[in-house]
Amino acid sequence: MNRLLILIAAALVTGCVTPPQTVQDFREGVRNGAAVTQMQQGEVKRPFVETFKAVWENATKCLNVTVTDTTPGSYGSVTESVRYRSNTKLTGKKTAEMVLQQDAQATGKMPEGGYYVMLADIEGVSPNKTNVTIYGSSVGYDNVYQSILAWARGETNKCPKFPMGGAGKSFTYHKGGS
């Protein structure tokens, strides 16, 4: 009986969690160890401007996408589409951020632009050295982390399929974050 009460209480608390409403809330949540999140860091031996431009161009091309998945259901197949939006911008002379949001149905108040999935901080630390720190989910987006770091290094990389490698899903790409 006690286990059942604990499980019910845990479910109620989890359902009441408010998702981050700002980029700073999201960044701090991951830094503070929010459940099912991770932070990856990479040092790039490239000037900040080149690194920023590469991430911006590739994120704009590859991460503004609607992912559609069809799964069998009790009364026929169920189709779900989730729109992802990427926005990469300068935040200072040597700093920038790439934000990935999605509009899937979930619990809690959706922030403007959608729920936060990933954030990459890009910071120039010397003329030929840029640090990239990526915050996000620890499940289903490993190939997106790898792609962002590859883009930052100036490597050519195919657009990542996500979540979970994109198996069985269809992808419709959009221009920009709208």
Structure description:
It is globular and about 60 Å long. It has a seven-stranded antiparallel beta sheet, with helices on both faces. Helix 3 (48-62) crosses helix 4. It has a single domain (19-173), classed as Alpha-D-Glucose-1,6-Bisphosphate, Chain A, domain 4 (2-Layer Sandwich). With 178 residues, it is an alpha+beta fold. The protein contains four helices and seven strands. It has helices at 2-15, 23-31, 48-62, 142-153; strands at residues 37-44, 65-73, 76-90, 95-102, 115-126, 129-137, 169-173.
* Euclidean distance between termini CA atoms: 50 Å
Average pLDDT over all residues:
88
CATH architecture: 2-Layer Sandwich
**What fold name stands as the CATH topology?**
Alpha-D-Glucose-1,6-Bisphosphate, Chain A, domain 4
Rg from Cα: 18 Å
Q: Characterize the overall form.
A: globular
What is the element string, with H for helices and E for strands?
HHEHEEEEEHE
Structural class: alpha+beta
User: Which CATH class applies here?
Assistant: Alpha Beta
Q: Total number of β-strand segments? A: 7
